[in-house]
Amino acid sequence: MKSAKIRNPLSFLLALLGSTLLVGTLYAQPVNVEAAKKEGKVVVYGAVPPKSMDVINKPFEKKYGIKVEYWRASSTKVMDRALTEWRAGRPGVDVVEGNRGVQLIMKKEGLFAKYIPPSSENFPDQFKEKDALITPWRFLPISILYNTDLVKGADIPKRFEDLLDPKWKKKISIPDPSRHTTTAQFLQELEKIMGPQWREFVKGLAKQEPHLAESLAPVTNVIIRGEAHVGITYVKYVKQYKGPTDYVMLDKFLADPNYMSLSAKAANPNAGRLYMEYVMSADGQKAIAGEGEFALYPGVNPDIRDAAKVAARTIFMESPTEEGFKKLREEFRQIFFGK
To answer: pTM value?
Structure first.
């Protein structure tokens, strides 16, 4: 059967655009604030340190009288807990925050309800998800951080390949890529910067016998304590951790947008919607940028040296499937542990 011809392509495109806008409008409705207040609390699982999230959570509680119960872990562990509760039929979370990779895995399992916080309509179009199941709210550029007391002048690395210099053996810290999904994703995505040589770089990095941390946050502590002189982690940690650290201004930064999603079986759905809307609002975005986070609201940048330049040099990572993550972690287990 021959497909029908479109007699007026322009009219078709306008109709398609209109239907797309309608879908967005259906899920970007104002929040029922009174219903949210009656629910009285919102349960949030996220990867942001509680101290940083307090700049959002405390003003939210004060403004609406709704208690925020916030549980923090790495994005991988946030996913593990949410999935375990979901599969057991005992979902305990209203809003889930995490990186793109884990959010897509949870989305595939059906964990999320459709909802677009109205304030997120101000964000750049490239970050928006058409299915309205996950909403971006920040992005996290990755660089080389170093201890400024131990690494100075010409010794400061300028690119990732510099970490293969013998002088850095046993002086590097990275998250364990056989367990940490974001690091596994990052190492593979280095292909965008290094081309086919990315895998040889990873093998060379393993030969440097790096200190393997649980996730990206502990890498910074290892650097501050001087247990490692350099490490691969988020730029934002130079603001969020007190200690002698700085980051390397790379030619290109790989970054992962982080998302928030409303649980499909939220016990407090209205409070969850209101919480997400507050996070996406100008007030919420400015507050989190003040903690060193790279926000998505136009014109909002963190108080970090050359933050706007970092944002301009950012390349966003693509996320493997759940099966792809498993294969990556297995490959990196072979490379780093030989088993």
So the answer is: 0.79
